[in-house]
Fold DUF3096 domain-containing protein.
Amino acid sequence: MTLHLELAPLISIAAGVGILVFPRLLNYIIAGYLIIFGVMGLLGYI
């Protein structure tokens, strides 16, 4: 039996749990998301 997991849903679940445990973590998660996708957009990966 093979279990195939995607990365995005696992990151979403981990972020959700982190936000529930540490509500201030939301600011860092959003900032990291925006920075990563901004840099990827500038470099042409998106």
Q: What stands out?
A: The CA atoms of residues 19 and 30 lie 11 Å apart.
